[in-house]
Each structure stands twice: as C-alpha cells, then as structure tokens.
UniProtKB/TrEMBL annotation, chain A:
<keyword id="KW-0732">Signal</keyword>
<feature type="signal peptide">
    <location>
        <begin position="1"/>
        <end position="20"/>
    </location>
</feature>
<protein>
    <recommendedName>
        <fullName>Leucine-binding protein domain-containing protein</fullName>
    </recommendedName>
</protein>
<feature type="domain" description="Leucine-binding protein">
    <location>
        <begin position="27"/>
        <end position="385"/>
    </location>
</feature>
<dbReference type="InterPro" id="IPR028081">
    <property type="entry name" value="Leu-bd"/>
</dbReference>
<comment type="similarity">
    <text>Belongs to the leucine-binding protein family.</text>
</comment>
<dbReference type="Pfam" id="PF13458">
    <property type="entry name" value="Peripla_BP_6"/>
</dbReference>
<dbReference type="InterPro" id="IPR028082">
    <property type="entry name" value="Peripla_BP_I"/>
</dbReference>
UniProtKB/TrEMBL annotation, chain B:
<dbReference type="GO" id="GO:0015658">
    <property type="term" value="F:branched-chain amino acid transmembrane transporter activity"/>
</dbReference>
<feature type="transmembrane region" description="Helical">
    <location>
        <begin position="183"/>
        <end position="200"/>
    </location>
</feature>
<feature type="transmembrane region" description="Helical">
    <location>
        <begin position="316"/>
        <end position="335"/>
    </location>
</feature>
<dbReference type="InterPro" id="IPR001851">
    <property type="entry name" value="ABC_transp_permease"/>
</dbReference>
<feature type="transmembrane region" description="Helical">
    <location>
        <begin position="130"/>
        <end position="148"/>
    </location>
</feature>
<dbReference type="GO" id="GO:0005886">
    <property type="term" value="C:plasma membrane"/>
</dbReference>
<protein>
    <submittedName>
        <fullName>Leucine/isoleucine/valine transporter permease subunit</fullName>
    </submittedName>
</protein>
<feature type="transmembrane region" description="Helical">
    <location>
        <begin position="28"/>
        <end position="45"/>
    </location>
</feature>
<feature type="transmembrane region" description="Helical">
    <location>
        <begin position="271"/>
        <end position="296"/>
    </location>
</feature>
C-alpha cells in the first residue's frame, strides 16, 4: 500500500498544474446503465469546445481545455472527479446527474465555483439569491412538469378535471423532483395523480406497467433516464398503452430510448428544452473541423441527435457565459468568480443563436442575479418511427409561473434557513 | 535481515500474547500510527482527503464490521449497504432532532441503533445458514433501502428524498458540511478507525472472538463444547452492525454530506464491502484494511495512470477497473482464499528467514 501511495504521489506531482487555459471539466459517464444518455451529451459538450478551439482559436483568444472525468453516474466518483479537477482552475461544472448536483451544491458554494445544472438538479436553485453559484437555465423540472400539464390542458380544451395522470419516475432525487409541482397542479386543475416509482437502474418495471394496464390512466408522464426509458417504452408497447398519451420529460426523449421498441414506439411524445435540427450549420462545422479532423470525443455518429444537440447547447451556453464574463471584466483569462458573473448576465437572443450557427436552438431568455432559471419554456416532440426522428409538435410552451414560483420560494428559503444563508446577490 | 528476531525474548504471557509479537512489526505499527496521526493531518489536501483517505478509513470500518460477522463468525451477510443506510439515517435524524448533540455521540449512537437493527435481522441466522442466510440478509438490504425511500419521516419530508448533513462543530472545529477542512474530516475518521480497530482486535482474540470462530468452524461442535450459539451469533451481528453503522454514519456526515439511499447504499455497496474482505482476507484485521485500501485506491490509481499519464479514454479505464477487480476476485477465491493478509503473512515468513532460507 505504501508503494502504491508513493507511485501515486509521484504521478500526482508529474500531472501537476498546466498552462493558463479556460478549464472546463466534463463529468461524463460512458459506462454503466446511464451511459446511453451520457455518451452523446458528453460528445456534444466536448466537440463544441473543440470546434471553438479549432475554428476560432478558443474563446476571446484563450484556448479551452476540457478535462474529462468518468463518474459512472455515481456520487462518490463524482466527488472524486470534482476534487481532482477543481484545483486546475475549473470554471464551471456540468455534472449531468441530479445526485451529483446535490452533492456539489454546497461544495461549489464553499469553493466559489459555478455549477450549471441544465434542466436537472435542484429546481429551487432558480432562486439566485439563495443559490449564488448554481444556475439551472434554460428550464428546470418543475417547469417541465408544468409544461407537460399545460400541453395536456391544451389537448383537452383547457379542462383536465376527472382525468387521471400516472407519473412513472426514477426512484431517486431526480425522479422525485416533479412530484411536489404535479401535486399542486393536480389540485389546481382537478386531475388525479398516481405515482409509480421505478428503482435504480430501471430494468424491472413489470409491476408498474401491470398497474397501468389495470387502472388505465388517461396519460402517463415519465421521469426516466438511462436504461429505464427503453424498458418503459417497451413495456408501454407490451401493455398496448396508446403511445400518444405517453409523455416523457426531456431526459426521456432521445433516439436510443425509442429505437429498441421499433415501430411500436411510434407516436411516443417527450418534452425538450432545445429544438432538433440535424441540418443546422453548426453541425456541418463540427463535422468539418472536429470529426473529419479526427478530434471528436466520440466516433462522430451522434452528431445532430437529441442528446448530442443538448450537450452542444450546454457547451454553447457555457461559451457564451465565458464571453460575457470576458466582456464584463475585460480580461480573457477569467476566474470562476468572473464566470459566475458572466453566467448571471447571460442573454440568449434569436440573433445570437443564429450567429452561433443554430437558429432557435433554445428559447430566448436572459439570466439575472435573482433568476437563475431562464425562461422555463419547453416544447413537445413526437417520435416518428418510420422516419426515425423526433418531430416537434409545438413551439416553446410557457410553464405556469403562478404555481411554480411560490414553491421555489418556499423550497429555497427552507434551504437558506437550514444552511444559514442570507439571501442576496453575490458581489463581484 | 530485516526481520531479526534474535534477542527478542518474551518473559511473560502478556508479552507473548501481544498483537505484534515481533519488535519490528510493533515499531512499524507505531511509526505508521504516528505518521497517520501526527504528520498526515498537516499535509492532507482536499483531494487526498476526499478521494483517498476518508473513503479508505470509512470503508476500513465497514470491512472490519463485515469481517467480524463473515470472517470471524462465518455468517454470510449481503446486508452491509442496508446497515450502512441505517447508520446514515440515524445520524441524520439525530443531527436534525438534537442540534446540540456533538458528532462523536451522534456517530456512536447511530452505531448502537444499527446494532439493534442488525440483531433483529440476525435472528434468522439461528435457524438458517450459508446461502439461505445470505438471502435473508439480502432481504434486509432491499427492505431497508425501500423503507428509507418510502417513509418520508426518515428524510424529514424533503421534496427530493435526499438527506443533507448540516454543519456541526466539535471543539470549535467544523467537522461536517461543505466548509470542513480536509484535516478535520481526516482526523475525525482516523480517531474512529483507531479506536474501532483496537476494539475489533481485542474482541476477536478474547473469549467472544473464540466463540465466534468456534461457531464459524463447526457450529455443532461449538455447541457441544459449551458455546451458546444464540449469544455468539447475535453478538456477532450486534458488533458487526455497530461497526457498519458507524461507517455508514461517517460516510454520510463526514464524507459525502448528502446522500440518496438507493444510490449510496444499494446492493452494490454490500458487494463492494464483501469484495474488500475477500480480497483483503477473511478473518483478519489487517485484511480489512488491505482490502479497503485496495478497492478505494485501485480506481484512482488506474485513473491517474490511464487517463492522466497515458491519455486513454475514460471509459476504457473505467471498464478496465471492472475487469481487474473481477479477475482479482476469481484469482483470490481460487488461489488464495485468505487474501492479501495471507500474502502478507507469507512474505513475512520469508523475510524472517531471508537471506538464509535453509
């Protein structure tokens, strides 16, 4: 053991601090039951930064260095990754795991490093006065729940009373997040909510779908991730649940979730926080500068699919925040605290998205010190099995702020009290 | 050469029975202890504490606990993860219900609560053994995780079902929460490891430990020579669960600070601790430490070598880790069932004779 420790010490010394780059850690997972979602997201995240390096020579003349660290969706490994990368001057963390996010929220606050939990993590982080360092724009889980219900309201002529909605959720912090909002919405709109928990990793769902077959809810919502999604879509097909009444959230709506069920998955709906457009100009540039140059993080086969697009969108938002921070502080080599300011001042406009090579990739939104959650809009998309692609059914739908905002206020203030935080904007 | 025993005479029973009968070992032990207690706290960094030392110390306690039950008393348990969860949730409930209580009391009380739960789930061991007992403890694992997920009282009705350790100080030093210094985390865990390892060592060589080993080797024979199986088995479950509960409590309060029961204390945790004692050595205190060190260090070493030095893709290294652990378990089960501890014992035997083996 002594020997391993010494070798470790030596290697740690050799690995030492590197040149002054913009360091972006990528806490990815390419192994385990959630790898199917982790791989395309991480590919998109890394490829976009690589594109900026290759095409523009970095951001503001400063090269981006992505440090990948495998977490396997496991919190302990996530902590190890966080500790091993934070010393290198990490600007922002994107852990792509609600469990790891909960872990990192207090740590990142103590270390002054921003977290971007895009459409996942702790919903009440939208309240930037309590969570100075955590950003969850462009949307969060409670927005997603409300967007789904608003969509269903729209389908039913504005009335959901007497309907039953079943929620199939991953039995973890991630899956439990929307319950509070859905309960509030059920009360407001008069529908019945049935909750069906699926345990990690989600391969065993027979009893849940048997219950759905017995009770025949009008709609099924799903908060799933990884292998759980594929199993759920297959089980829904097995019990002949009508696919158009089955709506997944934005982590349960990628190609690999529906393709295993084949034609039976046709008509499956899911939410999305970004649009899908495999022909967007930015993908051509990625193919030209990154994939064809042999610099892609993956094998290049994922370019343009749902989660690749979302990973790229996450990188785009991070790069825009870096630009903003450079602009505010007048220096190219920014610190994590400056990055936080950049994120808090981020603005995404239609013109800017077009400039970046992907018109309307996400909603138009701006971030402020009080509001870290963006616009909260989401759209509904539907799987077309014969075309093998998701097609948008709606534009971006507004969530019900009236229900969500008080819940966010309540939850974030409870956190502030528990942890002795005085709400207020971080001074830069 | 190194192990010179010449002149190392024992003149009393006490001296002959001590834990480290060889002077060289004894000195080595004190040197390691002095380094760990007096030097490391001053040089430990966040990374070393959070990625290596604290998990190593905490898993060492869990491995000691499981080794008492499985290695010394021969009762196979797959419920370690569930019992760690009991420790963690007890600590959480105690911390939030009694904010004035200090962390040492909280940790020890969570150990006792886990011991009580462990005895309860140990009752079937009086009637069943081997595979059947493993399945019964597996039921405990699943039941406990399910319960901590289902009953929201355990996580104080929070929306996400997560539990978060509030900040607590001990003698004015912050020991839990995000603002904890690395040395404080490390020293707090080290304190428990040293005490518990000492307790484990002395329990296992005393009359209680001999009763456990008698039960392990042949329960009917043990009963005939006067060992009460009820007392022996249940005490093994109680002591083992106490250790596991303390490790679960530290795992939550000191190490992670926020846990989710299914993810942190699932079945894979039970297997991890079981692998630690298989690779380290069943029925050995040193083996518990060696196994814990090995399984905590291996992924990190592989990562440093593979990803940071050689630049391999991260997924290849993660898969390699699984392959190596799997291969080692098969290797140890076939070639050296007594694990790293036995290899160390053999090396020592050789060293004592070296360089004149005949």
């Amino acid at each position: 053991m002594k020997k391993t420790l010494t070798t470790l010490a030596v290697t740690a010394l050799l690995a030492g601090p590197a040149a002054a780059d913009l360091v972006i850690p990528d806490l990815s997972y390419r192994t385990g039951p959630y790898a199917a979602g982790g791989i395309p997201f991480s590919d998109g995240y890394q490829d976009y930064f690589e594109l900026l390096n290759q095409r523009d020579g970095g951001i503001g003349g400063e090269m981006v260095r992505v440090v990948e660290c495998e977490t396997g969706y496991n919190t302990e490994k996530g902590v190890e990754c966080y500790e091993s990368t934070k010393g290198e001057g990490a600007l922002v963390y994107q852990p792509l795991s609600t469990g790891i996010t909960y872990q990192l929220i207090p740590k990142a606050a103590a270390d002054g490093i921003p977290l971007h939990t895009m459409g996942y993590g702790r919903t009440s982080a939208r309240n930037g006065e309590v969570f100075n360092n955590v950003f969850n724009y462009p949307a969060n889980y409670w927005d997603a729940a409300s967007v789904a219900v608003n969509y269903l309201l729209d389908e039913n002529g504005g009335d959901l009373s007497g309907k039953t909605i079943a929620l199939v959720y991953h039995n973890s912090a991630y899956g439990k997040e929307p319950i509070r909002t859905l309960e509030a919405l059920a009360e407001k709109h008069g529908f019945d909510l049935t909750q069906l928990a699926v345990d990690h990793p989600g391969q065993e769902q027979k009893s849940q779908w048997l219950q759905i077959r017995r009770e025949r809810p009008d709609y099924v919502l799903m908060w799933g991730w990884g292998v759980m999604n594929q199993v759920a879509v297959q089980e829904a097909a097995n019990v002949r649940f009508p696919m158009e009444n089955f709506i997944g959230n934005w982590w349960a709506g990628a190609e690999h979730d529906v393709t295993p069920a084949g034609d039976a998955a046709n008509g499956y709906k899911s939410l999305n926080m970004n649009t899908i457009n495999p022909d967007a100009p930015v993908f051509d540039e990625i193919r030209e500068h990154v994939v064809d140059a042999g610099l892609a993080a993956g094998d290049g086969s994922n370019v343009g699919n749902v989660l690749y697009t979302r990973g790229m969108y996450a990188a785009m938002l991070a790069a825009e925040a870096i630009r903003k921070a450079q602009e505010i502080h007048g220096t190219a080599n920014i610190t994590p605290a400056m990055m936080r300011d950049g994120m808090a001042a981020l603005e995404m406009t239609e013109a800017r998205m077009e400039e970046l090579g992907y018109p309307n990739i996400g909603p138009v939104f701006s971030v402020s010190c009080q509001n870290h959650g963006g616009s909260g809009q989401g759209l509904v998309q539907q799987w077309n099995a014969s075309e093998q692609r998701f097609e948008p059914l709606t534009g971006f739908i507004e969530p019900d702020r009236e229900v969500i905002d008080p819940l966010i206020q309540e939850d974030s203030m409870a956190y502030a009290e528990e942890n002795g935080i005085t709400p207020g904007c971080a001074d830069s | 050469m190194i192990y010179r025993e010449a002149g190392d005479f024992k003149t009393s029973y006490g001296a002959d029975n001590q834990t480290f009968p060889i002077k060289f070992d004894r000195r080595g032990y004190y040197v390691v202890l002095a380094l760990a207690a007096l030097l490391l706290p001053f040089i430990v960094t966040d990374y070393w504490a959070n990625a290596l030392l604290v998990p190593f110390l905490i898993y060492a306690i869990a491995a000691l606990g499981l080794n008492i039950l499985t290695g010394y008393c021969g009762q196979v348990s797959l419920g370690t993860g569930g019992f760690m969860a009991v420790g963690a949730y007890s600590a959480y409930k105690l911390m939030t219900a009694f904010p004035w209580m200090d962390m040492i009391t909280i940790t020890i009380l969570s150990g006792f609560i886990t011991a009580a739960v462990g005895v309860l789930f140990g009752l079937p061991s009086l009637r069943i053994k081997g595979f059947y007992l493993a399945v019964a403890t597996l039921a405990a694992q699943f039941f406990l995780v399910w319960m901590f997920n289902k009953v929201s009282w355990f996580y104080n009705y929070s929306a996400s079902g997560q539990i978060n350790a509030p900040e607590r100080t001990l003698f004015g030093v912050i020991v839990t929460g995000p603002n904890t210094q690395a040395w404080a985390q490390y020293t707090f865990c080290l304190f428990f490891v040293v005490i518990l390892a000492w307790v484990a060592r002395n329990l296992t060589r005393g009359s209680l430990g001999r009763q456990w080993m008698a039960i392990r080797d042949m329960d009917i024979a043990a009963e005939i020579i006067g060992v009460n199986p009820l007392r022996a088995k249940l005490s093994a479950f109680a002591v083992s669960s106490f250790f596991v509960g303390v490790s679960g409590s530290l795992f939550f309060t000191i190490y992670l600070g926020a846990v989710e029961v299914g993810e942190a204390f699932g079945i894979q945790k039970s297997f991890l601790v079981l692998f630690m004692i298989i690779i380290g050595g069943l029925g050995s205190i040193f083996g518990s430490f060696a196994g814990a060190a090995f399984l905590v260090l291996l992924p990190v070493v592989l990562k440093v070598l593979g990803v940071d030095l050689l630049g391999w893709p991260t997924d290849i290294v993660a898969h390699l880790n699984l392959v190596i652990v799997g291969a080692l378990i098969v290797f140890f089960l076939v070639v050296e069932p007594h694990g790293l501890a036995q290899l160390w014992r053999l090396t020592k035997e050789k060293l004592r004779l070296w360089p004149f083996p005949h």
